[in-house]
């Protein structure tokens, strides 16, 4: 099992005598966790994310348990001498993918994010939104163990925003961790395992998530082999799982996770049968 990524008594300031932006921060991000970071403008959210992403080192304290990490920065440098596909393929090889696999992953992510038409466009000529899609694709393509997203939804169109939400669900379902900052309080609402606010130079954890799901839920009746055990990644993403008969389950899942839930079941070996799917108008308490 991969260790938690930990900040231990971490502090960060800019310059030798600059004021401390963060100090004495202890934070553990476990595999499979979705973590939201909040805070006022200029409070130090990006500073914290850069420490978590390994882009900056703490001025004091330590970082331990570094996983394979990818990062979408708040500002992405668009004026690079590459086409979108060329840049992503190059980065894929930097992440350790063979060139053909990197090119394939680049194409798949541009397609998923609705930017396939710009694959051969030089980065410097991309619109802000398309450039942001490339920024998101570069982070997702190597299936990182830790994904750090600094306002990554900003500038994306509606479909790409939804796709990024799905990608976050996929990462956590696969056991990856995701840490994100977003100005929209409804972003991934009800899903984070923990929310921290930067206050002063420290981190304050918000009250634990509600015991019941707070966002819209979807119910799915699914059937596996008679002795079928729900796949672990399905167990991790559902709110409730009631076994209604041997190998049959009624699952509830936060609506943004429903696509990935169904995709996971349908592509399981052997595949599961999805009997019915229906939205749940109101969230009930957590059961099971
Ligand atoms: N590279 C840098 N050099 C000097 N000071 C910096 C640097 N980056 C950030 N700061 C300062 O550190 C403080 C925290 O900035 P940071 O960008 O981490 O905050 P933030 O919460 O992400 O802000 P925003 O919500 O505006 O994105 C600010 O006072 C900022 O001016």
TrEMBL record:
Keyword Cell inner membrane: no
GO-annotated molecular function: ATP binding; ATP hydrolysis activity
InterPro entries cross-referenced by the UniProt entry: AAA+_ATPase (IPR003593), ABC_transporter-like_ATP-bd (IPR003439), ABC_Transporter_VariousFunc (IPR051782), P-loop_NTPase (IPR027417)
Keywords: ATP-binding, Nucleotide-binding, Transport
PROSITE patterns: ABC_TRANSPORTER_2 (PS50893)
Domain annotation ABC transporter: ranges: 5-225
Residue stretches spanning the membrane: none
SMART domains linked: AAA (SM00382)
Keyword Glycoprotein applies: no
Annotated spans, Disordered: 204-230
Name the UniProt record assigns to this protein: ABC transporter
Species of provenance: Streptomyces variegatus
